[in-house]
Structure formats: structure tokens, C-alpha cells
Amino acid sequence: MRVLFVSAEVSPFAKTGGLADVALALPRALAQKGVDVRVVMPKFRGVQEKVAQVESAGMSEAARFRVPVAGEDKACIAFESTLPGCEVPIYFLGHDPYYDRAAIYGEGTEYEDALERFTFFSRAALALCGALDWAPDLVHANDWHAALIPGLIRDGQGGVCSGAKTMLTIHNLGYQGSFPVEKSPIVGFSEAVLAPYVQGGKINLLKGVILSVDLINTVSPTYAKEILIDGAGLESELKARQDVLYGVVNGVDLDVWNPKTDPHLWANFDVDDLTGKALNKSSMQKELGLGDEPETPVLGVISRLAEQKGFDLIMDAFDSMMGLGVQFVLLGTGAQEYEAFFAEAQTRYPGRVASMITFSEAWAHRIEASADMFLMPSHYEPCGLNQQYSLRYGTVPVVRATGGLVDTVQEFDAAADSGTGFLFSDCTADAFLGAVRRAVEAYRNDREAWRELVLRGMRQDLSWDASADAYKELYAKLTTR
After folding, report:
1. Tens digits of per-residue pLDDT, 139-163?
2. Does domain 2-251+465-479 have CATH number 3.30.10.20?
3. Is the pTM of this model over 0.85?
4. Were 186 and a residue from 57, 70, 109, 303 both cysteine, which residue would form a disulfide, CB within 3.0 to 4.6 Å?
5. Sheet of 245-247, strand order
6. Following DSSP, what letter does each residue of 91-156 receive, concatenated?
């Protein structure tokens, strides 16, 4: 089976969130199961430098061709490399006027020519197959950035991909690719094929692909059900396609997220020896200027600072939460109001709060390994990866019962000796604080039960193996129809 996997982000070459991690791990897992998968992404600024940092991975020119966008033929140079740790080919589609920029999507706000940039991307991904003389059985598009691909194939503009089935993975329905309808000529569709993409005075790429693609999946079973009720304005379209709507929970790349071998940590550890976890906690406390207090629970957060992630709940409950006698560590950037709040919180709680308003891969790993609990009070969460990283690293998740968080975290029950974390349902600061309080009390009241809770989480099978099998089954559904 030949699969073209199209994603705007692929770790470690370009990353703003979980999409990039999935676009690295899933193709690798599929390849191990015999799928001939090839990955395509834009050649953003910095890609060449990132490729050079990957051991044994080089980058060479693979093809040159032209791509029609907005009535003009624009040059594309495709470069080939491989994903880290495997032989899966990845192609970087280069057009410097679109992609040689300081950021992936925009600086503060989205780039004005976003529709042009990702129209080029979708068209170039299909044109690449012709240039390589390689025809996929299936094109797997991810999020709105690749949402024009099913329409291009339906419109007879797929080239050698014209006979391919199409599949869309929705990683986050909150991002839809919506543009003024006056810009629709940029896309270059016939009137009939453009029609599903039109929504009032806008063209909505996610709406159009939902109605045009052969099969849709989201990144957790619960999220697939939730969006039929609250689908960010696309409920009717999703209900119309619910017979081809599935949910497959994301896995964890165990080569990258493994506390036993993680090079970012001060000390490694595993389920057989947790000594290194305590050493990491102490090292982090010293490094960040927190009190070196082994018995004080450390609450960690690693996230985009966005409303979706429930920072309004954390802020409303913050002083009461700190009143529980905890330490708090945050890593992330985002909305200015959130950045300002947590920067000021560090000043108000010296030695107890550390706010790193930045992103650092190394510190993301260190916080996961060092914290006692991980906070994820999301308003909605398609899948979530950090709660799974936390389980892997012996850090107990405190999460809202939504989306993939429900599918991956089970409520702790001391009497039944079961569960892997603490959940709350109501989207309120009081409910969030109640879950944190339960976690802190469990931590302090019975350290042996807490140790078993930690070990249960670490023993969970979080690998991509089962998820890759599920994706392969979805591919088979399409290609055998």
C-alpha cells in the first residue's frame, strides 16, 4: 500500500504543537507495518539546519516543477531526506517567497497570504508524485493546511494521484482555514468543486474537505463523538459524514519519550528504579530557584498559552492552589494576558513559582520527568500528548474529562488500587481546584499508594503500535472499497 502523508509540520524539522509529533511518529510506525509511506511538508526557514542536526540524514534535490497558484505558475524545488531513525522518505517543498520566513504560520497574526501558501502546498504535494513517477493509493491529509487535496483530485487536477483515495485527520477543529470568499480564485477550483468550501462570505477549507474527502478521522474516539455536538460551527457537516468519521487516539514516540534513555534529563529512570525521578525533581528545583523541598508536590504545565488549554481556570484558582503548599512550574508562550499573569506570579511567589515564557524541547522533557503532577484543564482537547508523556514519566495527570484526556487517563481509586490520574468534568475553577486538591491530598496521605499510582501510569502501553494498526485498518477500508 502506497500512502502520501501530507502535513504542514513534521518534528523535528518544524513544530508548533502535537501535529508535528504525530507526523513523525505515525509514518515511522506505519512503515514498520509494511506501508510504503512518504511524507511531504513545506521547506520552511530552518529546515536545512534541522536536517543537518539529524544523525545520518542528508538532504538532496529530488525534483523541480511548477505549481499553478492564483493564475501564475510558481517554481517549486523539492528536496529529499529521511525521517529520523528510519528510512521513511520526507520531501520538503521549497518556494522561498512563501516559506523562507521567520515563522511557520505568522508573526503575531497569520500571514496575509496564508491561502496562497497552503494552496501551493496542496498542489505541490500532488505534483511531486508526478515528478517522482510515484502514484499513491491513498493521500492522507492533515488539518486545513492540506484540505484542498481532495478537491483537487475531484476536480481532475490530481495528476498521477487522480485515482487515489483521500483521508483527512482533524487534529484540532478550532483551526479551520477561513478566508474571504473574494480570495477563492486563488484556489483555482471549478464552481461545483468549490461549492462545499463556501460558508457565507468565506471559504472554509476544513468545511470543504469534510464534505469532499473519502474518510475522516480525529485523534481520539471521544473527540470524534464530541464534535458531532459541538463542532465549532461544523456540526451539520460532520453529522452528514458521520458514517465515515472515526477516532484513533495518538500514541507516544517511545524513542523520543523514554525516561530510561532521555538525553535531556539530569538522571534517567524507569519502572524498576525511580531514584532518577527524585534526582530530576531536586535538580529542577535548584536550577529554577525553587525551594529544594523533596516532600513538596511540584505541579507542571507545558503548553501553548491559549484559552483552549484552560488557563482561565488556572488563573482563577491560582492563589487557592498555591495555598495548598505546592510549587508550580510553567513552560510556554501564547496570549499576552497569560504570559503577563504567569510572569507576575513568579514575582509574587518567589521560590515557589517558575514561569518560563518560552519553548524549549529540553525543558519540556525535564519538567515531565521532574514534576509530581501535570495540569491539563483543557476546555476541549482532541487528543493531547502531554498527559501521555506525563504517564510515561511517572508524573500524575490532573485533567479535564474531555476528548482524548478521557480516553487516556482514568480516575484514581485508592480503595480499588486503580486509575492513573485525577479528572474533573465541570469547566469551572472550583472543579479544577477540587481535582488538584484530591491529587495533593493523595500525594501527602499515602506515599505507597501514590507510588503505585505512578507505576501504573508508567506501565501503560502508550506506543504507536496499536494506533498504527488502527490507521492501517482505515487505509484498508478505503483502498478495498
Report:
1. 999 999 999 999 999 999 999 999 9
2. no
3. yes
4. 70
5. 60-69, 72-82, 89-94, 36-42, 2-6, 138-142, 165-170, 215-218, 245-247
6. EEEE-HHHH-SSSSSEESEE-TTHHHHHHHHHHHHHHHHHHHT---SEEEEETGGGTTHHHHHHTT
